[in-house]
Amino acid sequence: MDETILEIKDLNMVFSSGKSKVHAVDNVSFRIKQGETVGIVGESGCGKTTLGRCIVLAYKATSGQVLYHAADGKKYNIQAISKQKLRSIRKEIQMIFQDPYSSLDPRMTVFDIISEPLRANYKKIPKNEMEYRVQDVAKKVGLNPSYLKRYPHAFSGGQRQRIGIARALILYPRVIICDEPVSALDVSVQSQVINLLMDLQKNMNLTYLFISHDLSVVEHISDQVGVMYLGQIVEYASTDLLFHNPCHPYTEALLSAIPLADPDTPMDHIPLKGEIPNPSNLPSGCFFHTRCPYCQERCIRERTSLIRLDDGRLVSCHFAGKLPLHGIQAKVPR
Amino acid sequence: MTSNAKTVLDIKNLNIDIHLEEGVLTPVRGVNLELQENETLGLVGESGCGKSLTCKAILGINSQNCKTTGQIFYTGKNGERKDLQRMPYGGKAIRAIRGKEISMIFQEPMSAFSPLFTVGHQLQEIVLLHVTKDKRAAKDLIIKSMNRVGIANPEKRYQQYPHEFSGGMLQRALICMGLACSPRILIADEPTTALDVTIQAQILDLLSELQRTSGMSILYITHDLGTVAQLCDRVAVMYLGKIVETASVQEIFHNPIHPYTIGLMGSIHKIGGTKDRLFSIKGSVPLAMNLKNRCSFYDRCIYRKTNPCNGPEPGLTPVTENHYAACYLPQTSLKEVN
Ligand SMILES: Nc1ncnc2c1ncn2[C@@H]1O[C@H](COP(=O)(O)OP(=O)(O)OP(=O)(O)O)[C@@H](O)[C@H]1O
Ligand SMILES: Nc1ncnc2c1ncn2[C@@H]1O[C@H](COP(=O)(O)OP(=O)(O)OP(=O)(O)O)[C@@H](O)[C@H]1O
Ligand code: SF4
Ligand SMILES: [Mg+2]
Ligand SMILES: [Mg+2]
Predict the structure, then answer these.
(1) Which of 157-216 (A) contact B at CB < 8 A?
(2) What domains does chain B contain, in order, with CATH numbers?
(3) From the centroid of its chain, how far is CA A300?
C-alpha cells in the first residue's frame, strides 16, 4: 500500500506571550504514507511536541494545513473542519504522551482510564460493548485483565505506558502520534514497549508519527525520518539514507554525537560551537549558521528553504548535496 | 584494574534500610565497590535499583530515615584510610571532605542551584569554604574553572542567575561547581540525561579531558549504556540493591556473564542492526521489600535452575580474572550477544 494518509503543508505555529514571539513550528511540510512510521528527531525545544499537537488539533495552528485522508475515502483539512466532522475524525488520530508517570489520572481505575475516550465519544455505548472493547485492547497491549480494577500508581513505568497505549487504541485509530513514548523508561523496558508498538502496527495497519530525541530508537522503528532544528524541518529522508548518507550539517553533527554502546568504537563527534539560539530571537540567514562548521558568507545572509534532491529527500541547506558529510557507517564496523 | 593501582574508595557491605508504613524497604543490600585512582567506574542499573542512594551514602547526605550500615573507606592524599560511615551525620569531619575531596554532580541541575543568588556567588561560597578565604582569589579560580568547562564569557556569566542559563550551560556550571576544589573523586549522577546528544558529547569530552589532566577518579551513574561504553574504564551493574556483575568495560560489553547484564546488552538497539524484535527481559523489577532468600533475578531469569538458583542468594564471586558475578550459573560460554 502506497497511499498517503497525512499531508502537512506549510504548517506554522507561533506562540506569543507579551512582546516575545516563539515560532515553534516554522513552515513545516511533509507527508506520511499509510502503515508507515515517520520519526521526528531534534534537540529539546525544537518544536516536536508542538508539531504533534497541531496534527491532533490540540493546538490550532497559526497557518497551514493538515490534510487527512480519512477512512471514508475523503480528504479533510483537520485545521479547518466543522465541529461535527471533527468528532468522527478525531477518533482516527490518537496521541500517546511522553511521561507515563504524570499522564494518567491517579484517581481513576485502569478500566476507567482506558475506557474514557469511548465514553466521551459514544454517549450511549452499551456496558457490555465497552467491557468487550477494554478487554480487547488490554489483551492487545499485554495487560493482565485482573489489573483493570487497580489504580495506576501500583504500576511500573512500562505497565503505565501500556495503559497509555491501550487508551490510544480503544477508538481503533488509524494514526497514532507517539510523543517520546519510551524516553522515560529503562532500556530493558523500552525494548518491550517498542516491540509492542511494532507488533500492533503490523496487526492493525497503524501509521505512526514517532517523536523522540533518541536517534537509535528512531532508527530502529522508522521508515522515514524528519530532523527538526528551531521549528523547521532541516532534513527529511528515508531512514537508511538519513543515517548513512546525511545531507544537512546538523544531521551529520547529531549522528556523530550518538554515544555508541560499543567501547571499541570511540565517539568522534563534530563539536558544534555556541549554544542553541533563543527561539524568540532567531538568527539571520540559515537558522543553523551560528553553529554550522561549513558556514559560508551566503549562509549568514540568505534564508534557506526545503529543496528536493534527486534521491527524493528534502534538505534545507544552501549547499545540500555538495558537502562531504559523513553518516553513521563511518563508525560502525561491518 | 591493575594490581598496583591505588584504591581511593572502598565500599564494604553497604546496606540501607528505610522504614515505611508498609514495612522495611532495603533499597541497598550489601554493596561492595572499589574505585581506583584515576579510574572512571560506571554504575549502571534500572531506575530504583539504588544507584543514587549508594552515592549519597558516600557523602553522608541521605535523609536521616535511611538506616545505613557497612563501611566506606576513603584514602586521602596523605594515604590515611578513613571510614566515612563512622563520621557523625552532618559533622565537621565529613563536611571537610564533602565538596572538597569528594564532590558530586546531581541528576537535576536546576535543583542544585538556588534561584535567589547569582551562579558566581554560589560557586564562590564553596571555594571560600574549602580553598581560600580570599574573595578575589576565589573569584579568579572560578573564572578559570568556568573557562575550562567551556562557559563562554565567564565574567558576565558569573553575575547571572541560574534561570538565565540554558540547561546545558547550567549543567556545565554544575560541573564547574563540582570541580572548583579539584576533588580527588567526582561522583556524577546522570549528569547528561537532561541534555541533547550534541551537548552531552561535549560534557563527556570535558570529563575525560579533566581526568587526564588532574588524575581524579570518577564514579559515573547512569542507565545509558552508550555513555558508559564511551566513558568508563570499568563497570558495576546493579540490580535490586546489589552489585550483580563487575568487570572492565570491554568485558561487560563483549562478554557479559550475569543473565541480567546479558539481557541489558541484548535490549540495546544497535544502529544498522536488524529491524526485528528487540530482545527484552520479561517482567519487571520487584520491590525491595520482603525479598525471598534466593537469587534476586530468579523470577525473570531465562537460565535459572530451581537447584541451585532457588537456594540462598548468590554473592559476588570471581568468575574469570577481574570479572565478578553474583550468579550460580554464569554464562561464560556465550561469546557475544547481539
Ligand atoms: N503552550 C506554549 N506556550 C508558549 N510557548 C510554548 C508552548 N509550548 C511550547 N512552547 C515553546 O515552543 C518551543 C517548542 O516546544 P516543544 O514543546 O514543541 O519542543 P519539543 O521539541 O517537544 O521539546 P522537548 O524535546 O523538550 O519535549 C519551545 O521554545 C517552547 O518553549
Ligand atoms: N527517602 C526515601 N524514602 C523512601 N524510599 C526511598 C527514599 N529514597 C529512595 N527511596 C527508594 O529507594 C529506591 C532506590 O532509590 P534510588 O534513588 O537510589 O534509585 P536510582 O537507582 O538512583 O534510580 P533512578 O535511576 O530512577 O535515579 C527507590 O525505589 C526509591 O523509591
Ligand atoms: S543465579 Fe540463576 S536465576 Fe540468578 S541470574 Fe544466575 S542463572 Fe539466573
Ligand atoms: Mg516534547
Ligand atoms: Mg538516581
Answers:
(1) 157-159, 186-192, 194-195, 198-199, 213, 215-216
(2) 1-101+183-338 (3.40.50.300), 114-182 (no CATH)
(3) 30
**Is the CB of A45 inside 8 Å of chain B's CB atoms?**
no
pTM above 0.80, yes or no: yes
CATH code of the region A4-222: 3.40.50.300
What are the cell numbers at A244? 548513512
Radius of gyration (Cα) for chain A, nearest Å? 21
In the reported structure, the alpha carbon of residue B271 is separated from the centroid of ligand 3 by a whole-number distance in angstroms of 30
Give the residue with greater pLDDT, B77 vs A239. Answer: A239
B173 touches chain A (CB under 8 A): no
ipTM (interface pTM): 0.82
Q: Among A159-168, B56-65, B195-204, whose mean pLDDT is lowest? A: B195-204
Counting from 1 in the atom list of ligand 3, the atom nearest the Cα of B301 is 8
Percent of chain A with pLDDT over 90: 63
Cβ–Cβ under 8 Å, residues B162 and B115: yes
**What single-letter amino acid sits at A193?**
V
Segment A90-119, tens digit of pLDDT: 889 999 987 777 778 889 999 999 999 999
The domain spans of chain A are 4-222, 249-334
pLDDT tens digits, A23-47 = 999 999 999 999 999 999 998 889 9
Q: Residue B5 in contact with residue B37, Cβ under 8 Å?
A: yes
